[in-house]
Amino acid sequence: MLIAVLLVLAYMIGSIPSAVWVSKWVFGIDIREHGSGNAGATNTFRILGPKAGSGVMLADMLKGFIAVKLAMLSGLPDTWEAYRNLQVFLGLASVLGHIFPIWADFRGGKGIATLFGMILSIQPVVALSLVTVFVGMLYLTRYVSLSSITASIAFPVMIVFIFNAHELSYKLFAISTAFLVVSTHRKNIGRLISGNESKVGFFRKKKDRQG
Questions:
Q1: SS3 197
Q2: d(CA 61, CA 120)
Q3: How far is CA 80 from CA 11, 18, 164, in A?
Q4: Taking a C-beta distance cutoff of 8 angstroms, is the pair 82, 88 a contact?
Q5: pLDDT tens-place string over residues 80-137
Q6: Distance (Å, rounded) from C-alpha 29 to C-alpha 175?
Q7: Contact present, 34 and 43 (Cβ < 8 Å)
Q8: How far apart are the first and last CA of the chain?
Q9: pTM of the model
Q10: CA distances in angstroms from 208 to 23, 165, 211, listed in the order given
Q11: Cα–Cα distance between 123 and 151 in angstroms, integer?
């Protein structure tokens, strides 16, 4: 019974629509009606600027981070694998809440920041490694979508071959994450192929700024 309550609570936390509330309460618009239509940090960056985007990103990361920490309220399962499984399921519940938020008509974002917060809470070293992959790809291409896809694919590779995770649920989660991120970025992939995907303004080369 307690586990079920924690899972529902994790979903509720994930459902907090940071981008929607910031856009409506501070700017008087619904972020989902502008840009890509997603209620996430990337769209907030593009439409409302870096301050609002950074705040939304931090809030979305915290949702996944806090949801995983709810496992500590479970009385700590008997085995480490059981505890890891609970962490994964709580984190996934928060990501599900972000994508389908009960507080915002089930129209949320893609869950990248919440996923990252979840991974940071479970295994910080892996999370920081993924940040390196993300930032490296962003520096090379200035495409947030491509950077997110690359980092998500790197996640199961790191888990299985570098960090040698033993928990089956964690491995399956990493693999599923890669498929989920690629799936939620289908439109972005189409725009990348056609050359119509938007680039971010930072990491621009000096000649690009001048030109």
A1: coil
A2: 9
A3: 23, 33, 15
A4: no
A5: 888 889 999 999 999 999 999 999 999 998 888 999 999 999 999 999 999 999 999 9
A6: 36
A7: yes
A8: 61
A9: 0.84
A10: 30, 43, 5
A11: 15
